[in-house]
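Narrative summary of target 7.
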Amino acid sequence: MNIINGLRKTAWMAVAAALLSSLILTAQGVGQQGTPAGEQLYRGYCAVCHGERGDGRGIAAPSFGGKIADFTNPEYWKKADDKKIAAVILKGQGRMPAQSVSPEEARAIVEYMKSAFKGAYGS
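Modeled conformation, tokenized:
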């Protein structure tokens, strides 16, 4: 029972961190397209689950049973394209909720993901 309560607490803390990050990013005027904005958006919305390195090992990943997309895996990039990734960001999929970003911000996140994870891991 304590393990479940601990996971719930961790998940709530992760959600709170993501919300706080999104408020900070909004206050800073983040949202312009490009890798710098995409990196900040990724860190604010995605890293809590997917990890700073994109390996699916973010702080909230255990609350999802460890089944989080690993952007460092070349197999991920064989199945994904820009439109599919942006659609998942905007609409959610499975246990991943939709993110409250604009289509332009979703595209900036995708561009950052490709530059940081796809190219870095030889896929």
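Residues 2-27 form the longest helix (26 residues).
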